[in-house]
Amino acid sequence: MSTSLPTYDQLVALPAYTEQPVPIAFEDVNGHLNVRHYLGIASEGLDESLVSLGIPQNWPAHGHACFSAEHHLTYLTELRTGDRLSARVRLVGRSERAAHVVVYLLDDTEQRVSYVMEEIFLHIDMSTRKTSPWPEDVAQAMDERIAEDQALDFEPGLSGSLALR
């Protein structure tokens, strides 16, 4: 990470998504959350957070979609079966066709940051399956969220390996 990460106490000020205990079915042979489930839970949290921006779960039925383009994943502390977790989402920026976001998985049992998923995702016109500009209402909602998140009293802790183009 190129800058220091926000603390658990700073991140709990953000809305919580995918709040749940770590299920036993997600445990691996090491006795903690399997690596593939960190990404899945963080992605679910991101999807939930996008609904308030005008991007519903069934957006493809309306001719639009979001496709992931790049990820940077950081595993900080293990999550074990039964630990309570939540996803917190910070929208960093957007361009005409892409957005930059950071999703933090918090270990709410131990009150610490467990995992960070930094992502670039794209707006897709499903009729062409190519990138296209964000719909105006979504772009405006994103701009408002970006301004809200920039006003937070902490930096997002970006990896430095992803950027909007």
Summarize the entry for a quick read.
This is Thioesterase family protein. It holds the Pfam family 4HBT_2. The protein has 165 residues and is α+β, with helices and mostly antiparallel strands.
Q: What does this protein look like?
A:
It is a single chain. The chain is α+β, with helices and mostly antiparallel strands. 21% of the residues lie in helices and 33% in strands. The chain has a single domain, classed as Thiol Ester Dehydrase, Chain A (Roll), CATH 3.10.129.10. It has three helices and six strands, in the order αβαβββββα. Strands 1, 2, 3, 4, 5 and 6 form a six-stranded antiparallel beta sheet that branches. Strand 3 and strand 4 form a beta hairpin. It comes from Nocardioides kribbensis. It holds the Pfam family 4HBT_2. This is Thioesterase family protein.
